[in-house]
Specification:
alpha/beta, 5-stranded mixed beta sheet, two-stranded parallel sheet, 7 strands, globular
Length: 91
């Protein structure tokens, strides 16, 4: 699922500006699967979360199943699995 989200976001944001927040158990898998720079995977007590930023550092902690997207127009925070519904939101 994170690969699908990464593929959608990478069309809008440069790969070096995509940050993923996860826990230590998934670090090597994320780096291998997404080919992100080491500093772009932030490991805090977050489970099944994705943070996609236009370069602004974003950190989340103690959350589950959250997607955060940051671009020049604003910030979107939503529950994982609802990203298709957000296309109707205007910032």
């Amino acid at each position: 699922m994170i690969q699908e989200t990464f593929d959608r976001i990478s069309k809008l944001v440069k790969t070096e500006n995509i940050f993923v927040v996860s826990n230590e158990n998934h670090s090597s898998h994320i780096h291998k699967q997404l080919n992100l720079p080491k500093g772009n995977v932030i490991l805090r007590d977050a489970h099944n979360c994705g943070v996609f930023s236009n370069g602004i550092p974003v950190a989340i902690a103690h959350l589950d199943d959250i997607i955060v997207v940051v671009d020049e127009n604003g910030v979107l925070v939503t529950k994982r699995g609802t990203t298709q519904d957000v296309k109707n939101i205007k910032l």
